[in-house]
Task: inverse folding
């Protein structure tokens, strides 16, 4: 395989305290004498990964997770506090809102300046000027100062300059969200062409669909650390699942767990288990084993179902619906197993939910939930795959 | 300097120069007019009211004596003040674009020097036209002295621009410091006109050396650089070296403090 275009090794970034003038002065002396400042807030912690040529990497994460800081460290705008970045002589172009434009100058001025930053010579700029202007397609506004531009126009111009440079590494920070529909399409077409020609890209986006469409790998940053890195589908799905769970926790913190209920669920085990978390491939098999207690000699009724990570029920079934009874494994203790095969759930985060009911199946006494993740490579949307066939009439 | 950096620098300078003209209908007129008015005020106040004299042995109007040193001072003081501001002024750029940041300071100082050199050339031409006896063979020495002044200015501006990111007070203090410095430098007066006990102190001010060298080249008959010039060269290179050290220590963290 090719040598990496860039290698990040244990990169950390702390922003020193800068609000009070005393803190600024202290940081100033420390930097001047020792080349390092102490204290501050940590934004990135120990981030390591490689960018190989031809890679397309999506960076995802909640707001404030450190995505933009990571991009700045990669482009060299920011110096990491600790760790190392090895670059192999390449042009890395960062594209973000405002992309280094000076609002006081005209679009034309900024275009030339930006091209110079990206390493184009005067002659090269003149040569490519027509291409840039037609890609940006902002008409006579090019002679207006950038402060009069809409954010869409700024991005158009920025993208047009970068497109004319064809950098070795293209880094985009949420730019596609700004342009209008037709410009977004143009950009995505250009990026696809760029990637097909062997270009390397990193993009920050909150649009998982876009990330899945354009990237092969993804990096999930959470609170400055790499939460997950790998195949784009795995990472984006677990990211979305995490979000749904977080959302669900906020919505309904308690789940009707009842330690003193007469009919109780003592244990719920999902398999296949995978270091503490259950991961099932789409179309695979999920097994659930329940152990329940009953205060009398009669076995309780168990209901097992699947809910989406935010708590929306998808399917549920009780032992009494199907006429089965948990078996007694010890006095007052019962067990039952159920398996869902050919799991039609689409990739994402889910939970298996079990209820213990009295032996008549009239009252719900106890509820237990265990989360699991369904993985798979698909861009279908929704919760389950419905049987379907396309026809061309 | 690699080709790419050179092109970037020339573009930055061009933009800096152009920005001085932009927006005002007659920007270039002000550029000439301001120093000329300053010259007029100083020569009126000092030459006419206070009857300041040129040092003995020189046959020329006071205004010529003053103008020869005033423009180099303007290059120096405005160069340092603008250069020191360069990083703060380009905060938006610095937080977005990875670039050699000292370029911004260098471009800022260069633009000031280019503009004032033009004015200086015009003033010298006018002085020659009104019959002031200038030492033309000293011109190369004058240019050499101005080059060392440029190096000094860049060094000082680099250090101050980096420090100013952290210590905002500098922005307020610098113009005042430079005003004091102006009066403590023999620009409006000749060191030889001061009582001896004060004149000795003037040698502690590096700008005295530059002004003396510049006047020697243009007004007296000095042609070849002597040891004072070597001192200027050494001093300016030392300042550049110091400025670069301070700048390179502080510049990786600009973005955190801007």
Result:
């Amino acid at each position: 395989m090719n040598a990496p275009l860039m290698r990040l090794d244990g990169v950390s970034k702390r922003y020193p305290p800068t609000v009070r003038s005393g803190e600024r002065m202290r940081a100033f002396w420390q930097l001047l004498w020792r080349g390092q400042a102490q204290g501050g807030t940590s934004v990135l912690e120990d981030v390591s990964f490689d960018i190989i040529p031809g890679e397309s990497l999506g960076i995802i994460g909640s707001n404030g997770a450190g995505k933009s800081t990571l991009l700045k460290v990669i482009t060299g705008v920011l110096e990491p506090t600790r760790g190392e970045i090895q670059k192999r002589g390449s042009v890395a172009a960062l594209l973000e809102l405002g992309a280094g434009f000076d609002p006081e100058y005209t679009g034309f001025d900024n275009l030339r300046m930006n091209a110079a930053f990206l390493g184009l010579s005067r002659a090269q700029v003149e040569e490519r000027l027509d291409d840039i202007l037609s890609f940006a397609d902002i008409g006579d506004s090019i002679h207006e100062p950038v402060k009069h531009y809409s954010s869409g126009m700024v991005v158009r111009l920025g993208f047009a300059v970068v497109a004319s440079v064809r950098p070795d590494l293209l880094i985009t920070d949420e730019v596609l969200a700004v342009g209008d529909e037709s410009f977004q399409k143009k950009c995505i077409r250009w990026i696809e062409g760029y990637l097909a020609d062997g270009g390397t890209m990193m993009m920050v986006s909150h649009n998982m669909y876009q990330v899945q469409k354009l990237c092969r790998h993804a990096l999930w940053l959470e609170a400055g650390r790499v939460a997950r890195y790998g195949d784009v589908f795995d990472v984006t799905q677990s990211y979305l699942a995490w979000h749904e769970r977080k959302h669900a926790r906020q919505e309904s913190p308690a789940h009707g767990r009842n330690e003193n209920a007469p009919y109780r669920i003592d244990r719920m085990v999902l398999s296949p288990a995978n270091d503490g978390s259950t991961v099932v491939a789409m179309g695979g098999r999920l097994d659930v084993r329940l152990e329940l207690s009953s205060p009398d000699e009669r076995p309780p009724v168990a209901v097992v179902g699947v809910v989406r990570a935010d708590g929306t029920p998808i399917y549920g079934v009780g032992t009494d619906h199907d006429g089965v009874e948990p078996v007694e494994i010890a006095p007052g203790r019962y067990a039952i197993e159920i398996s869902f095969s050919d799991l039609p759930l689409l990739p994402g985060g889910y939970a298996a939910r079990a209820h213990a009911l009295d032996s008549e199946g009239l009252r719900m006494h106890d509820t237990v939930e265990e989360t699991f993740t369904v993985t798979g490579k698909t861009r279908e949307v929704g919760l389950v795959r419905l049987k379907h066939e396309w026809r061309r009439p | 300097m690699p080709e790419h950096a050179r092109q970037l620098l020339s573009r930055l300078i061009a933009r800096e120069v152009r920005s001085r003209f932009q927006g005002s209908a007659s920007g270039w007129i002000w550029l000439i007019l301001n120093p000329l008015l300053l010259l007029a005020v100083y020569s009126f106040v000092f030459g006419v009211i206070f009857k300041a004299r040129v040092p003995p042995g020189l046959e020329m109007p006071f205004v010529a004596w003053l103008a020869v040193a005033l423009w180099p001072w303007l290059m120096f003081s405005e160069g340092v003040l603008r250069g020191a501001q360069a990083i703060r002024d380009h905060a938006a750029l610095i937080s977005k674009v990875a670039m050699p940041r000292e370029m911004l300071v260098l471009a800022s100082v260069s633009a000031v020097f280019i503009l004032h050199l033009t004015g200086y050339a015009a003033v010298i031409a006018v002085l020659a036209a009104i019959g002031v006896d200038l030492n033309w063979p000293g011109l190369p020495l004058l240019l050499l002295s101005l080059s060392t002044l440029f190096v000094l200015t860049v060094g000082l501006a680099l250090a101050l621009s980096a420090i100013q990111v952290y210590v905002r007070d500098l922005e307020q203090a610098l113009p005042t410091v430079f005003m004091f410095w102006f009066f403590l430098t023999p620009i409006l007066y000749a060191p030889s006109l001061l009582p001896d006990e004060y004149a000795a102190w003037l040698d502690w001010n590096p700008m005295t050396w530059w002004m003396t060298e510049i006047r020697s080249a243009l007004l007296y008959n000095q042609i070849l650089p002597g040891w004072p010039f070597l001192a200027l060269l050494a001093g300016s290179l030392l300042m550049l070296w110091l400025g670069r050290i301070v700048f390179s220590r502080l510049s990786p963290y600009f973005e955190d403090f801007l």
In short: Chain A has a mean pLDDT of 84. Residues 6-244 of chain A form a domain with the Rossmann fold fold (CATH 3.40.50.300). The interface with chain B takes residues 15-16, 18, 21, 24-25, 27-28, 31-32, 35, 37, 72, 75-79, 92, 94, 96, 98-100, 102-105, 109, 112-114, 116-117, 119, 121-122 of chain A (CB under 8 Å). DSSP finds nine helices and 19 strands in chain A.
